[in-house]
Prior knowledge:
The chain is of the alpha/beta class. The protein is built from 11 helices and 10 strands. The strands form 3 sheets. Strands 5-3-2-1-10 form a 5-stranded parallel beta sheet, sandwiched between helices. Strands 4-6-7 form a 3-stranded mixed beta sheet. The protein has a two-stranded antiparallel ribbon with strand order 8-9. The longest helix is centred in the N-terminal third of the chain and has 25 residues, at 2-26.
Amino acid sequence: xxxxxxxxxxxxxxxxxxxxxxxxxxxxxxxxxxxxxxxxxxxxxxxxxxxxxxxxxxxxxxxxxxxxxxxxxxxxxxxxxxxxxxxxxxxxxxxxxxxxxxxxxxxxxxxxxxxxxxxxxxxxxxxxxxxxxxxxxxxxxxxxxxxxxxxxxxxxxxxxxxxxxxxxxxxxxxxxxxxxxxxxxxxxxxxxxxxxxxxxxxxxxxxxxxxxxxxxxxxxxxxxxxxxxxxxxxxxxxxxxxxxxxxxxxxxxxxxxxxxxxxxxxxxxxxxxxxxxxxxxxxxxxxxxxxxxxxxxxxxxxxx
Length: 304
């Protein structure tokens, strides 16, 4: 009995301290941004990968707002490759409003080639004067989440089938969902019309434009990226299954070992991911009940 109690206390304390560490690492660090080192200006490119969860939303808001009033910055660009949004409609509206109201214009580029903007990410993109790289996709919006009184029906107004279907960059341009096709991020910056450039000629004598600004690309820090990864359905449910298996294994073996530590960490990751994702609580309850039933089955099989 004492062994069982000590294991239980250890698991609770480990989960508690792990949760505190998770919360601390998930909170974006606020640091002053240095002025642009280029007299011709700087462009901040904010890389957004995966689902737009609370971590990504906070990161986008902070990364955009912290340079909006910094001398020398001339443009903010979201580089989007997202399967959708898992934040509420209210939070998505707040994010778009915050970006649109910044003193420095924010635009969106779906890229590089092979990227996509689906669900709520498609609405976010459509609200920010977007362009798309070749071989990119947009659509599968579902029920529109943005306030139509302020933003209108940005995506499905041209075709309600976009609530369930996906189109490529060429078709998006034909439907005025995308302003143009920009092969690379530099093309998107040039075509905004508000960044410094010069006219040059290439090796074959053809005229082209060359950016004079400095492109500063930022993404999620590694520790925060780990939590963002945990908020994807595949990782969250895999972590839940691993946590259940390892914690049950640890519970019925002597001492506290590696299995218990790994199981507790997986439990924290699964808890965070499931809290971020849309969830049917009765389904989660069934998973936990099955773990309880499995524990009973293990207990009855242990020789006395």
